[in-house]
Amino acid sequence: MAKEFLLMSRSADLVDQLTASCKKARWQLTQITTPTGLVVALEQRPVAGVWWDLSQVSLDTTIATMTLIRQQLTGPIMVLAPELTDRIQRKLFSAQVDDVIPLPVEERGFRARVSQRLWLYRHVKFATATTPREPAPTAVIATSDWTIDQANYTVKKAGQPVELTPKEFQLLSYLINHRNQVLSREQLVSGVWGYDLLASSRIVDIHISHLRDKLEDDPHKPAHLLTVRGFGYKFV
C-alpha cells in the first residue's frame, strides 16, 4: 500500500508540484485546505506524515495545530515556509516539527528529506505515554438504548456495536462524565484534546455532528447530545 501524506495547503501550484513528486516516489498525497480539516482527517485514518504550507496560515495557528497533532501522529511533520527566520524555526521546532523546508520546494531534495525522516521513524522506537485526563466515575454507562463501556472503549446502540474514532469516544466519555453540565467548546477542547487550539469550535462541532449521526435516532433533534445555544453542549 502506498504511503499517504496529508498536505495542508490551498495553493494549487504547490499541490500540483508535490502530487507529481509523490508519483515518482510512489506515495499518495491528499490535499487538506484548513487546519481543522487536517485535525479531523487524522482522526479518520493513519497517515505516513503531514506537510504544512505556512504561507496559508498564521504562525500562531500553526504552532497550536502542530502541538495538537503531534500527539496523534507517529510520523514526520514537515513545514514548508516562505520565510525562514531563527524565530520561526525555534517556534516550530519547539512544537516538535520534524523539519522546516523553504519555499519554493526543490523536489529531489524534498523527497530525500522525507525518505530520511521515514527511515528514522521506522528505526527508532518512540515511547508514547498515555495519561488519562481524569478517571471515569463509572465503567459502564447505560442510557436509553446506548451502552458505553469506558473501560473497554466500546459503544452499543440497541445492542449493536457502534464504531467510533478514538476522539469521538473520548468526547462522548467526557460529556457523559460531566452529564447535565453545560460545557463550552473551549472546555471540551481542553478536556479532550488537551490544548487550546485556535478555531476549536469547528473541531468540536464536527465531532458532535458525527456522534449524533452514529447514535441519535434523529440527529437533527437529538435526545442526549444537546446544543446550548451561544455556549456549548451538554449530555442528558
In what range is the share of β-strand residues? 15-25%
Order of helices and strands: EHEHEHEHEHEEEEHEHHEE
Helical stretch tally: 8
User: What is the general shape?
Assistant: elongated
Content-based structural category: alpha/beta
Question: Strands across the major sheet, in which order?
Answer: 2-1-3-4-5
Q: What's the total number of strands? A: 12
- First CA to last CA: what distance? 43 Å
Largest sheet: 5 strands, parallel
In helices, the fraction of residues equals 40-55%
Compute the average pLDDT. 85
Low-confidence segments, ≥5 residues, pLDDT <50?
126-137
Radius of gyration: 20 Å
Written overview of the protein:
The protein has 236 residues and is an alpha/beta fold. It is built from eight helices and twelve strands. The chain has helices spanning 12-25, 35-44, 59-69, 86-94, 107-123, 166-177, 185-193, 200-215; strands at residues 3-8, 27-32, 49-53, 77-81, 99-102, 140-143, 146-149, 154-157, 160-161, 183-184, 225-228, 232-235. It has a five-stranded parallel sheet with strand order 2-1-3-4-5, with helices on both faces. Strands 6-7-8-9 form a four-stranded antiparallel sheet, with helices on one face. Strand 11 and strand 12 form a beta hairpin. Helix 7 (185-193) packs across helix 8. The protein is elongated and about 60 Å long.
